[in-house]
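ugh ok so i messed up the first submission bc i forgot one of the chains. this is the corrected input, ALL of the components this time, i swear. 648 residues overall. if the numbers dont match what u have on ur side tell me asap before i send this to the collaborators (the ones from the other lab, u know who)
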Amino acid sequence: MSLLETRGVTRTYGKGTTKFDALRGINLQINKGDSVAIIGKSGSGKSTLMHILALLDHPTTGSVFLNNEPTSKIKNKALNKLRNQTFGFVFQQFFLNAQDSVLENVMLPLKIAGVTGRERRTKALAAIKAVGLESKVKNKASALSGGQKQRVCIARALVNDPQIIFADEPTGNLDSATSENIENILFKLHQEKNITLIIVTHDPDLAKKCERQIQIKDGQVVGGTQQ
Amino acid sequence: MRFHDILNSAATNLWHNKGRTFLTIIAVFIGSLTIAITMGINNGVNDYLKKQVGNVGKTEQMSILPGSSSQDTNEPQKYNTKKSSQNADGMMDKNDVKKIKSVKGLKDFKALKDCDVDYVQGPNKTKYIIIAQITEGINYDLKVGHQVATSGKKAQILITKPMVKSYGFKNAQDALGKKVTLVTKSPVTKKKAKISATVVGVRNDSIVSKGFAIYSNGLGEKIIAANQKGLPHALKDKYVSVIATPVNKSASSIKKVEDNLTKKGYSGMTLKEAVNELFLTFNAVTGVLIVFGAIALVAACFGVINTLYMSVRDRTKEIGLMKALGLSKGKVFSIFSCEAILIGLFGSSLGLLLAMGLGSAINNFAAKSFLKGLDGFTLIQFNWSSSLLIIGIICLITFLAGTLPAKRAAKLDPITALRYE
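and heres the new structure output, hopefully the right one now
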């Protein structure tokens, strides 16, 4: 069943002589429960594609469908709610609030959603447990190692029980041993909770672990396993 | 995001940048302090005025005197019908009273004659000179007793607190109902006359007729009669002042009446104006303070704007992340507005607290020095409503200052904010 679908998506930056086409007609379909790697070199447009899939950016032309509904019709408020409750994000640079505790960081999406009190705490603790950081709940985010930080990120992405986790170069800043640990956590979640994984990476090893690969070059899909 | 989370986020951020927050708060604090002191003085003065004038009743009662006398200038003044050497002594005659009565907009005229008393004696028989006036029909602020009669023949007197002890009464209560003797003589016959008056009340120290004893109408008439014994009829009509009541009590029409009086060569002033005039100094002080406080607050606004711009810059990534995670523009705006309001709240509260502390110290000092003898005058006073108003206004000002940076934060594009090189 189609979860996310793009039809003829283009994204153009700038105007006139500085005009730059980041995406030039992307057609793809991602099904529920897939694990998809979007691979490509730096500047290929893979990050722009992820932003459009995650509804952080709008395509210049073409359309995106979520659960077969065109996303262009979704109002801002509903869009915010959708991103908050349907998506989870893991970034290469973590984006943790350094001075806050692990718990506070993981609770952030719940805070945004307006969840309060015991429910917020319970859910956040469960997510932290899922990434194996129970012992660091009260530690400041700045006091953690790179791998631990990324696990906090995953817990934060997980805390709202999302349908899709977008991971932008999740292992880009980590050594290979730690990378493997993070990858294992992500794929375990994918399998156990049936969360759709969309991983943007230029690491072929990570890409291979995904069920599907989508190769992007100069703003177009040039290869990979299509359905 | 719930309100308390927004508040928490704003407060946490202020706390994480303690130094910066503190410095920003100082400017707000100085503005708040000066404005709070100003307000305190205003409250104090108004409260005292209310006590003094509010109870008096008839505050619009106007007392009319001859216009500028020769004492106002060292230069010899030109003679005209309004201004002669004869009326330069500040006394008025029948014609003056007639002219004053012709001024439109006044009613209930009462021409007051001078009453000279040589000395006064209380129970201990010590002779004292006395400064006094016939009642103007207002309610004098009394420690004990009641007002003197404004008509009729009763010889009654209100004495001041210092007179109580000097005249030989045990205390104010003791003086009530007792007699004092006023001794007067006619300038013509040189014959002494003893007039006995009943003390019916003891005045509190007051700015209204400060230090004056007050005669009842009847007592005044008796003294005048004694004064004028043997005086030719033509000389009997000498008046110190005329009191009258404006028909229309609005400030503008009172002003008009006063202008008309000035044209005719007299000066009129209502009791209210006379009392307000005494507070010109305080008004000047509060005026300067308000300007100073306003300047401090304007400077504080730029401080707040600057601090919040820094805060937005520092938190670009965090804002981007929160927006990516579904936080609305409005909520982002609220977080930064909250930060601005908290700065205003802390600054104004601290300023108010210190103002209260300083206020009580100044009050203590003032009561022992320059305000000595003005009963019931607390120079600096605070009340809940105006304190809350100050806090509210300052919070509003800092909020408005914060809207610029808060708008910038709200507009941040999450993709741009989260881009990394």
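quick check: Chain B has a mean pLDDT of 84. that seems consistent at least. The CA atoms of residues 341 and 395 of chain B lie 5 Å apart.
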